[in-house]
Amino acid sequence: KDFRNVNLSDPRFQKLSQEQLKLKDDAKIIEDSLYSLAKRVFQIESFVTREVTEMKGHMDESTRGIKERRIGLATGEQQLAMTSMNNLALMLNDALKQMQEQLAKAKAGMSKNPKPGKKQQPGLSQLQQQLNQRIQELQQSGKTGRQLSEELARMAAQQEMIRRALQEMEKMRDGKGEKPGGLDDLMKQMEETEKDLVNKNLSQEMIKRNKDIATRLLESEKSQREREEDEERKAEQAKDMKPSVPPAFEQYIKNKEKQIELLKTIPPALSPYYRKEVDEYFKKLGESPR
Description:
Largest sheet: none
Mean pLDDT: 76
Order of helices and strands: HHHHHHHHH
Strand content: under 5%
Radius of gyration: 39 Å
Shape: elongated
Number of strands: 0
């Protein structure tokens, strides 16, 4: 906006030119960060690479226009650079938000004991079905160009989120010593879908594969619920336990029985005084260490 209102003879032109060069240099840090992110999250790699390349190219052209004192070229390229920046910001923000929300829903959906009357959050199978529906709607929408690319990037990120949540669930099962549920093949199918989305390959083969993924996720969740219910029933069953007596009390009982047997041998004609003395004697005998 400042460049549009400045004349070539205005001293501000030089100052604005320096600011443009500084923005170009500062953008290098952002480029490196985004390229590093794109390498780790391949679902957004093509989108990020394209937009960053366009942003960098437009900023270079803007700098060239400033050097040649062609304000119209400079401001036009600056506007195009801003468009790429906005596309990147919107895509990254939207993808992050959706991944966080759906991951939270997925974890809540896998909760073992939902409270009575509380609406249970959707599980992975439901999230997959919702994604499948959106893919089919996009296939029929006729969208093209950048709008299509952004939608596909979001869907690829969502598919990756579901796959990673499934991967975490498989790790938890393995950590408990449970037999793996054959989910490795299912995760490979999800990876194929992610690649197809990134490559804009909305084929019928992918649609069929996604339906199979949703069905297998549903079966896996059902099997997991049945296993957890069976474990709960087993835990609630009463167990026959042999009563145990503390060692000290057990010794006391033995001594008492011995005392009673000895007392049976006391002559009945014994006087009360001597009977009392004998009782005391037997008590001391029973309490004495062996």
